[in-house]
Structure formats: C-alpha cells, structure tokens
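Tutorial, part two.
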Amino acid sequence: MRSMARYLMERTRRQDATQWEVEDEPAVARAQEALEQHKREALDLAVKARWGALAVIAFLLPFINPSWEVIYYEALLLGFAAIGWAQRRVGQVGHSRAELTLIYCDLILLTIVCIAPNPFAAVDWPLPMQFRFENFLYFFVILASATLAYSWRTVLAMGVWVALLWCLGVALIAIFTQEPSYSAADIALYADNPRMAYVLDPYSLRLELRLQEIVVFVLVAATLAITARRASRLLLKQAVLERERSNLARYFSPNVVEELSKNDEPLRQVRQQTIAVLFVDIVGFTSYAADRSPEAVIKTLRSFHALMEAEVFRHQGTLDKYLGDGLMATFGTPSSSGKDAANAMACARAMLVALERWNAERRAVGQEVVRAGFGLHYGPVVLGDIGANRLEFAAIGNTVNIAARLEHLTRTLSVDLVASDALVQAAVEQSRDPSVIVNLERRGQEWIRGYSEALCLWTLSR
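Running the prediction step on this input gives:
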C-alpha cells in the first residue's frame, strides 16, 4: 500500500491537474468540492475587500473634491457595492453568464464614471479634462479584488475588456470634443514652449498617456492572471494530496500517515523503542458467529472495529492491525509522545465506555451484547519496516507477545482488562495522576506463557 501511495504521489507531481482530473473521477469530485469551498470563501473575501475599498474611497472623495457635486460619485459607489453583493449571490464554480454580466456591468459603469462628465458639476469642463482626474486608477481596485474570486482566464479577460472599453471611451471623447478656439494672447503665452502648451491644453487627449494606461493595465492583469493560475493549480494539487492522505488513512493510523507525508523514507530506520501495546478481542466471537449470517457477522465486526479504532486515534495511538474480531494498537509509534502508557490506559477505559454504550443500543433493539477483553503492556520493542515490495511498519518483540497473552488471560481471570504493572506504573508517572489506577485491582504474580518471569498484574471488571 505504501508503494502504491508513493506511486500516486509521484504521478501527481508529474501530471498536470487537469489530466489527473480526467483520469480519476473521485478526484474530480474532491477537487470540485475544494474549488466550490474556495470560491465561496473567495467571493466573501472579495466583496468585503470591495466594500472596504469603497468605504475608503467614499471617505476620501470629499477631500479630493470638496463640493456638492461629489454626491454624484458617492451615489455611484453604492452601485458598485450593489454589484459586489450580486456577484456573491450568483457566484459559482465554472462558467456563469450571470457573473460575467455583472463583471461587464462593473467595468462599463466605471468607464462611464471615468469619461462622462458629472451632470451636477458647476464648471463646464472640456471633455478631455476628464482624463486629468486620473480616475483610471480605480480599475486596479476592481482588478485586484477579482483575483480573490475569479479564475485566471477571467482576470486576463478583464484586462482585455478594460483596454477595449478605454479605447472606446477615448474615441467617444475625441468625437464629441469641440474644436478649441484660442485667443492671440493664449497662443503667444507658450509660443516659445510648444511642449508646455501641449501638456496644459485642456482639449488635448494626451493619447500617449492613454496608451500607457492601457499597456500597464494589461501587463498587470496578465501578471495577476499568472498568479491566480498558479494558486488554482496549487489548490487542485492540495485536493489531490488530501485525497491520497485520506486513502492512506484507511490502512494506516493518522500519525503514521503524517509521518509518511513529511519525508520520503521516514520509517525505514530500524530502532528499539519503549512503547505501550494494547490488544482487544471479542469474547466468544466464534460461537457468536456460528449462529448468524455472514452479513450480520460482518456488520457487527465493522461496528465494533469503528468504535475501537476511533478511540485509538483519539488517544494518539497507532492502529497496528486488525486481528479478525480484534485489533492491536500501539502507543509511542512511530515516535513517542511522552505519555504513551497513560494514553494506552485512557484509550482502554474509553473503549470500555464506548462498548457499554454500544451494548445499551443493542439491548434496546433486542440484540445480544458483545463483551471484549483488553490486554496492555509497556516495554521495549523493535520498530521498522518489514517486507520487500509490500512494506509494513511493524513493532516486534516480547512486549507485543506479552500484551497478547494478557488479553487472553482476561478469560481465565474473568475480567475485562488485564494490564502489566510496568504499564500501570508508567501511566501513573507520565500522567502524574494517581486516579489512573481507580477501579484497578492489583493482583499477585502471574506466570505468563513464553515469559521467564512472573508478572505483577492489574485487572479491571465492570
């Protein structure tokens, strides 16, 4: 499985996100979900950014133009705010005519604001004077907010649309501008400096500046489009990797998956480490399964395993393997938490509580209760990968064997849980809480098959 995981990760790095989507339908759904979530969050952020920018502009306008005619522009700002609200309402992943229409409205409205004279203005300016107010800068505000929510293609298209609208606006201004009439005094004033006359001429369109505005805007739009495209690809790749991590988590514990994701070969190093080992097994499962259909048996096993593995993961454990109607979990793998024995004991207690709750539900519908035995031990093991092509991270040693024997001992002693003194003492020391041994009964020395010395044991019964 890990070999397959490496292959998938390498394939993801090599292939373009679009190709990957075509080949793997589940990935398309995951990527689509990620894109939709990103779009919703981005639209909210873009609208908030727009409203914030509009508020700043609305505050600045009276200082820039301290006259009653500024009310006209303040009213238009409300129109831009309304368009932003509508964009958030109709926003969706993929092609949306409604969204494109609203973007057109944004750009057309701003173009009108920039080139059309204020109908409430007290002074009748020559039309080319509209360009002297540098209103073109506000297009950058709309472009910047668009990068938060729209695709790179839309951002690039906005650059082209603005260029076309601005060219159209300049052409309209040129068409409707009347021929100026200058007095002899005006002509004589700058007779020796024609460049100054050109710059200060209120009827001059300053076409070189209009071209500069268009070129700079398109360049900025292209740059932002490239940035948006890279961000979109990163989002898709992240969705891919997250899916692979989810698939790995079906076979490995989350902490092992986390370790695998950090490095290429994080688990190959063979080492000795002190860990806690927990075995749990259903009592009398063979006779239970004999009288039931295969479907009912599997359903019971799945429910039991789901309860047990949830507690393992919740207590920072590693699900080592399923053992038919039981499982083996380790605490302190692949790296120690400093509270491994305490986590193992807390996990076993939580498993007993979960099992009791599950049995109450089974009794309510007339099903037979399920009993389980738990064995825990704390000691040194050898950790490392085993296998040639199919690798498995394994804990090997006498500690594992003893934990398994303690679980079997629950039948002989007629208890639910048997823990070694080594685990209990380590749990008390690590948690610094004497309540760890609450309801545990200390028993005398017991001989464990396959072990050369008798062990002091602790037991727990419900």
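Confidence is low (pLDDT under 50) at residues 1-24. In part three we will examine how such features are distributed along the chain.
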